[in-house]
Amino acid sequence: MNVSTWILGWRGLWRDLRAGELRLLMVAVTLAVAALAAVGFFSDRLQGGLQRDARQLLGGDAVVVSDQPPAAAFTTQARALGLQSALTLGFPTMGRAPDAQGGATRLVALKAVEAGYPLRGQLRLAQGAQDRTGTPTRDIPARGQAWVDPSLLEALALKAGDTLLLGDAGFRVTGLIALEPDRGSGFMSFAPRVLLNAADLPATGLVQPASRITWRLAVAGPDAAVRRYLTWAEAEVAKPGVHGVRLESLDSGRPEMRATLDRAEKFLNLVALLAALLSAVAVALAARGFAARHLDASAMLRVLGLPQRRIAGAYAVEFLLVGLAASAAGVLIGWAVHHVFVALLAGLVDAALPAPSGWPALFGLGIGLTLLVAFGLPPVLQLAQVPPLRVIRRDVGALRPASLAVLALGVAGFAALLLAVSADRVLGLIAVGGFAGAVAVFALLSWGAVKLLRRVVNEQTAPRWLVLATRQISARPAYAVVQVSSLAVGLLALVLLVLLRTDLIASWRAATPADAPNRFVINVMPDQGEAFRAALADAGVQRLDWYPMFRGRLVAINGKDVAPADYKEERAQRLVDREFNLSHDAARPPHNEVVAGRWTPNEAGAISVEEGLAETLGLKLGDTLRFDVAAVPVEARITSLRKVDWASMRVNFFAMFPLAEMPDLPITYIAAFRAPEVWPPRSPAARGALPPEGVASNLGRPGVGSAGFDNALVRQFPNITNVDMEQSIAQVQRVLDQVIRAVEFLFGFTLAAGLIVLLAAVGATREERAREFAIMRAVGAGSALLGRVQRAELAGVGLLAGVLASVAAVAVGWAMARYAFDFAWTASPWVPLAGGAAGALLALAAGWWGLREVLRRPVVETLRRAGE
To answer: Is residue 348 within 8 Å of residue 264, measured between CB atoms?
Structure first.
């Protein structure tokens, strides 16, 4: 035969496509590529958008951030390098309406700006409350004027042109902010913005020596000059005695929402990884079945004189074309699917993201081809080695186990690609390593189970169908091991995703429960404490976090002075460079768990430290810390470490003294509670009756009554700062819902891949089952008996696979929860039982679909096929 390898491969492809031989193989590759390409396109566009908008999010090319007015040298150096500069300062304060217009109050995020702001991006002013786009402007508010978020006017019952009171001054509202480029993320801005001219700030009287203000000096100009400025500024910040100053640049300055998007991407990457891993198993099973069905055809080609190299080349060409076609289809599907991610995560990402690069498409093609090379070609290439004698003797030329070298090389390449796409080393290692380890454990345990099965079933007393099913499984232990392991891998991914969906996401939601505190009040003076708590009790507040608070800077550890330069990690440098919010109480906070040491009430010279802070700064039990608290040195020894959940919406501190009283320190109080939804409160006598006039409209409308409560509280205690976190909590919940929907959407890919694995695993032994059933039918076994035998075999294999998969899913899920997603998670003990039942049902369903033709095949045909 003198046929071109390419022509032979193309003819084989066309023939096998029409016969349906490559259906499972192509679907598996397409699913894997589609899942990975969809996440890749989404991540690529997101990264491109962040790079595009980074300067706007910063408000410049670089920003010097400090808690004190930045030294004049920073501005002087910027001018010397030919850079533009703009100084802004911001802090939270209370805005209020004039008494004649209701006197309502609202916490606002005040920002004072200079001419030239912003250096990058554009400020946009809305023409009305419904205008979401706004008109760009290069101006700033004129003296005596304020620009505000539209939500503030609604909260204070004001309108454009009215007066807004800030401290000792009033400002006429002349603009509504539609877009503030350097605001960062609305997710973290819990208060509406008020923009003032910096020249008006002294008149408010809000800036005092102890005020907590963030100063931001933005610079912009040519990239080379900006790099020189950053080099100079980094050296200035590192000088001894410079505290509370940090730099933000295109590399380091990222919006706060990025943390949420990172977690969303991590979930999506996990689902895509599982889909790819399952697809690899499906490709391996489908390719081996394909090779087994082509043994006779390959033997005939050898008889006709086709050399081994030509046969191998023809199948390689066929699989190359299959891989290219399936991968291209997967890339196109992934391109379409990533638009769904953008829609589902609307609000978290900008819908006008830049176009993606070509890298995700190339990566998807590489994944598809690697799948076929690593898991599909090894058994298929054995077809070139089938001896011509097989045409006469069917007992020769059977498939052998793949070469360990070839298989190891392919698996290593595929694992490397998956680790690269995971974008998280820990997550990738747990997913890939966990599945690799699980496969080895599945094979070992299933082999032992097959050996044990024959001994357990008593052939004298057991039902006939059970005896035959046992013989079926134990007669071909290698097939049983492959089938159980394959089913277990498919079920492992499905069970793992179900557990992640239910338990891990439930843990995520639990971080902000529905009854979480939605008010934080600071600056309560000690002489106001009793009256303040009485006011909350009268309003119906039942649970209250109430702690003294004072600020101190860590200056020494074990008698040695500390400075940011002592640490390499950026977070440690920031912690040493800032002041801590400290507190004291004889009783341990009930929502803090002591993980090391002991909390002893009223122990003199003791301090309790949050475990994360201790790890970052290298602290341990017994270390002595010295704080500078308003020029007063306070020294204590670490006697306990606490675990703090910073997302719990409770009052938490890095360090606490276990003392009831510390009279020498200047303290204020902080409170956290859930505001009453109905205001004014109904008296006990009125319960069960109709509410007073004017209150009925507030019932069942969360936030309406609480606004009245906030106004009354600020009127009674005008010096406090009342932080309303209700919108932030609602936004957190909306973010979670969006991320969960995106994960569940991609879960469909993994579910489909898992079902393909089940079908491939069950169908891998179809012809062997047909021959065995033909022999049993020849000796008198009826279809009903054979049906019970098949169902018993499938149910047993599925049950074993389900139990093994569930146990492995619990272990892998715990590792992911602990080391990748940072959740405390304990799976239910019912998971293995539920997994076993699910495995049995899925195996029965897959067997009914994939093996129904075996039982329906006429007896004569099955005997003819068995005898060929």
So the answer is: yes
Confidence category of residue 398, pLDDT binned at 50, 70, 90: low
Residue 686 lies in a domain: no
Together in a domain, 492 and 565: no
Q: Which two tokens stand for residue 434?
A: 């966990």
Q: Is residue 428 part of a domain?
A: no
Q: What are phi and psi of 659, to 5 degrees?
A: -120, 140
Distance (Å, rounded) from C-alpha 319 to C-alpha 313? 10
Q: Which of 257, 274, 309 marks a domain boundary?
A: 257
* Whether residue 633 is found in the same domain as residue 677: yes
Does residue 289 register a pLDDT over 90? Answer: no
Question: Rounded to whole angstroms, how far apart are CA atoms 465 and 480?
Answer: 18
In a domain, 430, yes or no: no
**Dist. CA 53–CA 254, nearest whole Å:** 10
Q: Are strands 214-220 and 84-96 parallel, antiparallel or unpaired?
A: antiparallel
Q: Are strands 105-113 and 544-557 parallel, antiparallel or unpaired?
A: unpaired
What is residue 684's predicted lDDT score, i.e. its pLDDT?
Answer: 45
Query: Count of residues for the chain?
Result: 868
How many other CB atoms are found less than 10 A from the CB of residue 294? Answer: 19
- Quick one: 554 and 674 in the same domain? yes
Q: Where are the alpha helices (DSSP H) in 457-559?
A: 464-475, 477-499, 505-510, 529-538
Q: What is the mean pLDDT of the chain?
A: 76
**Residue 725 has what DSSP assignment?**
-
> For residues 840 and 171, what is the distance between their CA atoms, to the nearest angstrom?
72
Same domain, yes or no, for 607 and 640?
yes
507 and 532 housed in the same domain: no
Cβ distance 867 to 394 under 8 Å? no
Domain boundary among the residues 257, 290, 318 is at: 257
Rounded to whole angstroms, the Cα distance separating 434 from 424 reads 15
What is the Cα Rg of the chain in Å?
34
pLDDT digits (tens, 9 = 90+) for 440-472: 888 888 888 877 776 776 666 667 767 777 776
Phi, psi of 115 (to 5 degrees): -60, 140
CA distances from 407 to 107, 131, 278, 384, 486 (A): 63, 60, 17, 17, 17
Q: Cα dihedral angle (133, 135, 137, 139), rounded to 10 degrees?
A: -100
User: pLDDT tens, 685-730?
Assistant: 333 333 333 333 332 333 345 667 777 887 788 778 777 776 556 6
pLDDT at 351 over 60: no
Per the CB < 8 A criterion, the answer to whether 742 and 344 are in contact is: yes
Q: Give the pLDDT band of residue 579 (cuts 50, 70, 90).
A: confident
For the entire predicted model, the pTM comes to: 0.56
Same domain, 52 and 83: no
- Per-residue pLDDT, 101: 87
The neighbouring-strand residues paired with 635 are: 626
Domain count, the chain: 4
Beta strand 579-584 pairing with 655-657: parallel
The CA distance from 341 to 268, in Å, is 10
Query: What is the span of the domain harbouring residue 648?
Result: 519-681+694-724
Domain match, 24 and 1 both: yes
Q: What is the mean pLDDT of residues 638-651?
A: 83
Q: Looking at the structure, do residues 761 and 771 belong to the same domain, yes or no?
A: yes
User: Please, what's the b/e burial string for 13-38 (b: 16 or more CB within 10 A of its CB; e: otherwise)?
Assistant: beebbeeebbebbbbbbbbbbbbbbb
